[in-house]
Known about the structure:
By secondary structure, the protein is mainly beta. The protein has helices at residues 15-18, 74-80, and strands at residues 8-11, 32-35, 42-44, 51-60, 66-72, 82-84, 89-91, 98-105, 113-115, 120-128. It has a four-stranded antiparallel beta sheet. The longest helix has 7 residues, at 74-80. The mean pLDDT is 89.
Amino acid sequence: MSAVLAIEIRLLDDRLSGWGFPRWGSAAAAGLDLHACLDAPLALAPQGPPALIPAGFSLAIGDPGWCGLVFPRSGLGHREGLVLGNGTGVIDADYEGPLMISAWNRNPGGTDLRIEPGDRIAQLVFTRVARPALTLRDASDAVPPSGEAGARGTGGFGSTGRR
């Protein structure tokens, strides 16, 4: 059985309750749906600048063994091109400010991507954080930590091939 993490949420936008927040899309969904807390519809131009959209709440994770990760919603990204301007948002355990979603229309052409107030545009996943003990090594030391000479790392991206 996994440990239960207690997280405090502060609603900053009263409309969230009416939109059903907080909720997961299904009983087995990993991501908590994040709504666009906009006052008016927003049009994102194809390949235009990203927009910061308020999620309408703040949270306090508190436990440094956990963090939150903000991801785009799969269908919106695939079908409509809505992705996060920063790839993945990281919510540290000690951050308690308002959550913002960096939204970007990745489509190279076509029409604007329209986001309405209340649209579910992203998802928040909570995950554990590993903080390993790091050992600094001299850059001239070519022997990998395993002690085996000729270890990977010299060939660069794609050096192991495709098959």
